[in-house]
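Structure ticket #2291
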Amino acid sequence: MAYTILIVDDSETIRAVLLRSLAMTKLPIDSVLQAVHGKDALEKLKTSFVDIVFTDINMPEMDGIALFESMSAHPEYKDIPVVVISTEGSATRIAELTRKGIKGYLRKPFTPEKLRDVIVETLGEWK
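Resolution: structure written out below.
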């Protein structure tokens, strides 16, 4: 069984970079879904099983924190790990997100290796 990943970012460029980087991780990926903001992501979650969500913080309609909070309040989505990918990288911000329950943090720009490491740390080593 391979991973299903949801990428949530309002930047088409960042979503494309994530797609290319995921391909370079050599991890078993079944499918990658994309959403342009939190509300769009919640709609995708209604129809698709997802192993992990990568989200930006700052987006229109619904930001990444509001998405995480909505997922945390929903019985079917609360156990899906959420990893923030953002340019905001202060230790205070990362600590705040960790306290809220975010499973990982990846600062833009990132490498495919760092992306792979976050997936492995969050979901466990693929055997």
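Closing remark: The two ends are 10 Å apart (CA to CA).
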